[in-house]
C-alpha cells in the first residue's frame, strides 16, 4: 500500500461487490507547525483529504456529504468516469452538492495503476485554495510482484495565512485568504518543515515517491544525494526507455509525477521545493515550508 505521511487513508465497506467510501467536505483546523493552525476546508477532518486507494476493475461508490456553508462538488482528476460523475456542475449534468446534502459518485475504475487526485470543481478559485483536495491512487493488482519497497504520496499545497506580519511565526489559529496571489506557508501533506514527517528508507530499498499538486503554484521538487527516474506522469506509466534521470522535477498545478530511486547513499537527505521562498515559514529562518527529509533507518 501507499503511505501518505501525516494523512490517513480513506476506509471503505464492501457492499454487494462495491467499495463504498464516505467523504465529508467540511471546515477543518489544520496544524501547519506546532501550535500554528489554519482554518481551512478539507475532507474528513484533514487537509489534504484522506488518500483513496483502489484497484483497476473496482466498482466504487463515494458518498460525498457537504458540511460547508456553500455548494460544492468533487472531481476525480485524471480518472475516466461517466460524464455525470465528473463533478463539474457548471458545465455538466453532475450536480452541485448543496449544504447538508450528499451525492453518490459511482463508477468503475477503468484506468490502469497510477497516481491521481480528487478535488472540488465548484467555486474552485476559493474552494481549492481553502484546501479541498486529496490523493487517489490506483494500485498494482500484483503488489507482491513489485520491486518497490517504499511507496509514498505527497500532496503539495500553499496558503496565505492572515494575521501574521512578514518574518513572523507564532502560535495561534488563523484565517486564510483563498483569493491571495502570494503565499507565506507551503506544505507537504498539510504540514510545514520541520513539522513534516520524514520519509524513512532502508539501504537497498527501491523507493517510489508520488507527487501531486492541485493548487496555484508550480514547485520544482529536488532530492539531495540521489538521482531518480521519472516513471509516470499524470497516472500514466512512462516506458522504461523513455524515462528521464533527474534530481529536480517541476510539479505544476494539476500534475502528478511518480519518481523512483535506489536508496544507496545513507544519511539524512533534504527533499524539497527549490524555490527559495517556498523553503521558509513566512520568510523566517532556518529552513521551513515545502521541505522534508529522506532518512535511512539503518
TrEMBL record:
InterPro entries tied to this protein: Cu-oxidase-like_N (IPR011707), Cu-oxidase_C (IPR011706), Cu-oxidase_fam (IPR045087), Cupredoxin (IPR008972)
CDD domains, alphabetized: CuRO_D2_2dMcoN_like (cd04202)
Listed Pfam families: Cu-oxidase_2 (PF07731), Cu-oxidase_3 (PF07732)
Listed transmembrane segments: none
Gene3D superfamilies: Cupredoxins - blue copper proteins
Signal peptide feature range: none
Top-level lineage group: Bacteria
MF (Gene Ontology): copper ion binding; oxidoreductase activity
Record-given protein name: Copper resistance protein A
Domain Plastocyanin-like residues, every copy: 39-141, 181-283
Amino acid at each position: 500500500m501507499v503511505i501518505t505521511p501525516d494523512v490517513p487513508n480513506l476506509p471503505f465497506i464492501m457492499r454487494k461487490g462495491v467499495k463504498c467510501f464516505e467523504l465529508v467536505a467540511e471546515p477543518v483546523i489544520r496544524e501547519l507547525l506546532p501550535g500554528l493552525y489554519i482554518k481551512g476546508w478539507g475532507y474528513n477532518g484533514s487537509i489534504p483529504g484522506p488518500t483513496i486507494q483502489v484497484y483497476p476493475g473496482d466498482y466504487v461508490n463515494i458518498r460525498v456529504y457537504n458540511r460547508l456553508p456553500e455548494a460544492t462538488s468533487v472531481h476525480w482528476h485524471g480518472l475516466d468516469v461517466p460524464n455525470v460523475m465528473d463533478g463539474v456542475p457548471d458545465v455538466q449534468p453532475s450536480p452541485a452538492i448543496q449544504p447538508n446534502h450528499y451525492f453518490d459518485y459511482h463508477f468503475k475504475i477503468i484506468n490502469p495503476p497510477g497516481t491521481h487526485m480528487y478535488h472540488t470543481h465548484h467555486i474552485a478559485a476559493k474552494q481549492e485554495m481553502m484546501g479541498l483536495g486529496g490523493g487517489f491512487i490506483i494500485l498494482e493488482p500484483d503488489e507482491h510482484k513489485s520491486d518497490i519497497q517504499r511507496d509514498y504520496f505527497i500532496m503539495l499545497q500553499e496558503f496565505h495565512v492572515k494575521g501574521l506580519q512578514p518574518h513572523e511565526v507564532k502560535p495561534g489559529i488563523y484565517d486564510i485568504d483563498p483569493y491571495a496571489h502570494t503565499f507565506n506557508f507551503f506544505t507537504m501533506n498539510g504540514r510545514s518543515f520541520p513539522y513534516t514527517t520524514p520519509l524513512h528508507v532502508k539501504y537497498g530499498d527501491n523507493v517510489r515517491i508520488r507527487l501531486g499538486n492541485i493548487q496555484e503554484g508550480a514547485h520544482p521538487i529536488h532530492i539531495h544525494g540521489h538521482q531518480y527516474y521519472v516513471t509516470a506522469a499524470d497516472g500514466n506509466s512512462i516506458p522504461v526507455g523513455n524515462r528521464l534521470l533527474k534530481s529536480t522535477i517541476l510539479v505544476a498545478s494539476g500534475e502528478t509525477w511518480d519518481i523512483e530511486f535506489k536508496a544507496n547513499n545513507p544519511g539524512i537527505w533534504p527533499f524539497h521545493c527549490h524555490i527559495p521562498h517556498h523553503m521558509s515559514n513566512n520568510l523566517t529562518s532556518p529552513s521551513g515550508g515545502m521541505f522534508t527529509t529522506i532518512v535511512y533507518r539503518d
